[in-house]
Design goal:
Elements (H helix, E strand, L loop, with lengths): L1 H52 L1
Length: 54
């Protein structure tokens, strides 16, 4: 009985680690996507500004 509980606890810990890692990956993806969107916005604003100057 004790061995079964230890195995279950180890499995739960592994699952928690996997979920944390997945969450971190998703967070990093969202951050990169936000940064890309910000760069595109900045580029578009600069292009608009240059086109008005010329």
């Amino acid at each position: 009985m004790m061995l079964y509980e230890l195995l279950r606890l180890a499995e739960e810990t592994d699952q928690e680690r996997r979920m944390e890692l997945q969450s971190t990956r998703l967070g990093a993806r969202r951050l990169r996507a936000r940064q890309r969107a910000e760069r595109r916005t900045e580029d578009a604003l600069m292009e608009l500004a240059w086109s008005r100057l010329c």
